[in-house]
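Cross-check.
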Amino acid sequence: MVSVDFYAAFIIGLMGAGHCLGMCGGVSAAITLGIQNNQQSSRWPYLVLYNFGRIASYMIAGAIIGGAFASLANYGGQAAALASLRLLAAAMMILLALYIGQWWHGVSKIEGLGKGLWRYLSPVAKNLLPLRTPLAAIPFGVVWGWLPCGLVYSTLSWAAVAGSATSGAAVMLAFGLGTLPAMFAVGSMASHLQKWLKNLYFKRVSALLLLAYGVHTGYIAIKQIM
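Predicted model, tokenized:
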């Protein structure tokens, strides 16, 4: 199931790219503005390394969550423990599909869970600007990776049931890779991509695919529990 979850996480990142453009798209502009004037022509290394740091944070969170829940399940000696968690993850997938399809926006409320931590990290991110070298974009991305995001939290529920720290990190890596097209889109490319991603037909077809996967996973989890 880990490989399937890897692809599912990638699809979440890709299909949720419209949300990513709203939450983090402005960061690309901030990075560009933060680069010294004589380095504006070489902004790509900054963007690449920023996203490297951002995805690294996702993977760290996935490893922590995946490893912790796997240890709890093994310690408890209950095979149904991870199945129960997978049922919860399936429910999160269904809620996420409803959010992407614009049928229900409750997932956005989950972002409030991380506001306490972000209150302390936000000043750190601001102090890292302007970026004087491409390598300086890595810690900036690492900090920004902890920005409260409902999509990230929903995907972390899949990392929790991945079965190990390594698999949890892999799930979050897949999610991060799925967000890259939106994060690398700049200028006119970004406007065209955003228009496409905001197309209601595209969003609802994508949402139905995620919904089907969530229902299927939930059905398997219920069979394992029973």
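The CA atoms of residues 123 and 143 lie 10 Å apart. The chain has a mean pLDDT of 80. Passed to J.P. for a second look.
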